[in-house]
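Board notes (copied after class):
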Amino acid sequence: MEELTSWVCRAKEGDRAAYDRIVRQFQDRAVAYGYSVLGDFHAAEDAAQEAFLQAFTDLPSLTEPAAFPGWFRKIVFKFCDRQTRGRRPAVTSLDAVRETLADQGDPAQRFEKEHRNAQVHAAVRSLPEPDRDVIVLFYIGEHSQQEIADFLQVPVTTVKKRLQRARARLQERMVVMVRETLRESAPSRDTRFTEVTALLGRTRDVLERDPRVAAAYLAHFGQGEGWGAEDDAWSSLNVHVVVADEHIDAFATERRAFAALPGRPLLTVEAAQNAPPGGYYLMALYDGEAGPYEVDWYWHGRSGVKIPQDTRLLLDRAGLARSDEPTAWGTTDEVPPALQRVRDAMTEEAKRADEARNVVSLFWAMLLISAKCVARDPRGGEVPFFPMLNNLLQDARQFAGLPAGPYDRAAEASDAGGRLAHLRGIAAQMESLMPQVAARGADVPAAMPERSGRFLDMVEAALPAAGQAAGK
């Protein structure tokens, strides 16, 4: 408790590193309690993440740092209550993605797991709420009875009685199933939950410090990403920043610097065709043990902007109107005048170098997205971005002064293992090109070959055994 008190005191002073430690310590408790309230792990993860973001903002109001566990639980409940009153679809957790992939090779195994999970869910939901809270907290994060008591703000003796009562109701066989199933769903099984929460926290800090920002919201994971991205935890984060009209054109030159404020990106990609009308766009990839994490930044002028209901509000200084319709617009070839002026001021040599930087960066970003396509549909056919990756590779060769290279189209329609092997092969080609591209003045993302290899390893490990036949 003394260690937690120290972290809370430091976090109250704005120490993000201290707060990240609090998130790591309480992530399982937050998700477990959310699941007990909501009955859905994906919605519980969403509510828990929002609670962590809000709690950091509200920490100055916590007068007694040792009371953090119970104080935080009330914030989790607030966001669970919002979920029950009707909000956006839940995000699919990375564990759920892994389970889905692992089961695709055997329909009988998939049915058995689904049946088992349904049994566990029904058994847990059948418990009275006080007993359910205790047993979920006890098993999902293997918390001590004292930790549970502090979180629920009840005596340890009460926790012990509720746990005994819940076990008696479930009976021995079901207790084993509940313990195993809940533990498999703990967010602490990997680092993604804490890394994404930390990235979003730093992002909100940046937005709150910038007086030009009128509002900002986060479209839910994967919104509009398509290509099989059913809002799973590998999907991109979409950060929409609403800026006072008189400042919007500043982002013609400041986008990369702004995107670097929450953390230095591994790479950034310019794609003016993705920008909202009269606004700007930038893709950034941020590092992480379970990443990289793609963030798509959208800057909007304030005039006429409404905040969609199906979003997570990060900031609203202007009291903008809400809309029942999602934010949507088509792609365009038009370049905002301010951005065109920036380009016109560049020398031809600088333009070529910047285009090469963007080509190489886009290649690595699309390679990761292609790997996600394989993960989401390991038994599917052609990955839609393979030809694009080849074209980007040839563009890089041309910039380096090399002739076009061969392209193996047979790999496009192979099994999942073969498609990942193809991605590794073209990644190796780009890696060998990067020193030559850099020698001609382009700023290339040097860390991406290693980070991409690690991501491909993670995808391959999640594939059904039958889909790994052509492995690395």
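Comment from the instructor: Confidence is low (pLDDT under 50) at residues 88-105, 221-230, 466-472. Residues 348-468 form one domain.
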